[in-house]
Design brief:
Shape: globular
CATH architecture of the largest domain: 2-Layer Sandwich
Radius of gyration: 19 Å
Helix content: 40-55%
Number of domains: 2
Pfam family, one: AsnC_trans_reg
Number of helices: 7
Organism: Halopenitus persicus
Structural class: alpha+beta
GO molecular function, one term: sequence-specific DNA binding
Mean pLDDT: 90
Protein name: Transcriptional regulator, AsnC family
Order of helices and strands: HHHHEHEEHEH
CATH class of the largest domain: Alpha Beta
Strand content: 15-25%
GO cellular component, one term: cytosol
């Protein structure tokens, strides 16, 4: 993998496009090169399907970090602190939660140095009192389309009013 591959993957992710022509328009990489590179990324398993879902471990983002973030309560802190956490480079998901933990933060990183940088970034936010982070050892399940976790009838009963 090289810089062109990363530019293609970044464009797929940020623009949510999978057309070699549109990727070419955003990156300036020739269409034929984009097409060839996408095929190579599929063969390597980096791109998994026609939706262009990516295997992040094959991109180098092999460590999943789950952090519990504890913040000082104040009016509207869930929005202001949550937004600042979400702006930290490498943070993929931020959830404001009920219970003892204020936020759950998910990040995909390359190494322990990035973990340290993330935790330092969390703790540089004044309202954050402490964090507790965990490395994922094995992903047992990671369904990117949660609707797949339900039987059709369950969804009909739960969502559609009769």
């Amino acid at each position: 993998m090289d810089e062109k591959d990363l530019r293609i993957l970044e464009t797929i992710a940020s623009e949510r496009i999978n057309s070699p022509e549109r990727i070419h328009e955003h990156t300036g990489i020739p269409k034929s090169t984009v097409h060839y590179r996408i095929e190579q990324l599929r063969e390597k398993g980096v791109i998994r399907n026609d939706l262009y879902e990516m295997d992040l471990s094959k991109v180098g983002l092999s460590i999943v970090l789950i952090s519990e973030v504890y913040a000082e309560y104040e009016e509207g802190y869930h929005e202001s602190v949550g937004e600042r956490i979400g702006e930290i480079e490498g943070v993929n998901q931020v959830y404001f939660t009920m219970g003892d933990t204020d936020f759950i933060v998910i990040a995909h990183v390359t190494d322990r140095r990035m973990v340290e940088d993330l935790v330092e970034s969390y703790e540089s936010i004044d309202e954050i009192r402490r964090t507790s982070s965990k490395f994922v050892i094995t992903t047992v399940k990671n369904e990117s389309h949660p609707i797949n976790d339900f039987d059709h009838e369950t969804l009909v009963d739960a969502i559609l009013e009769e």
